[in-house]
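ok so I'm stuck.
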Amino acid sequence: MVHLWEQEGLSQKRLVERVGIEQARIADTLSRMERDGLIKRTRDVKDGRIRQTWLTERGRLEGPHIGRGTRAKPACTGGGERGGGSSNSNSWSS
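replied:
not stuck anymore, here's the structure
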């Protein structure tokens, strides 16, 4: 996901080259990320065989927190404070 933060619109092939893992693993990961609403994939306008990968708004919000055991919190936490002292700080429902 860091690679998409650096440059959105990468193809699956480019992600494989940058990350250095198997094509099948990238494909599975991208499918899960798309299912979870973190990315969207669109066809390249010049070559319809290529699918470009873009972060969604949710992906941009959660990206910095992935792999760190925390998740982005919604802008409004009910108490009027952002990230305020909730005892349930590592989860939220959407």
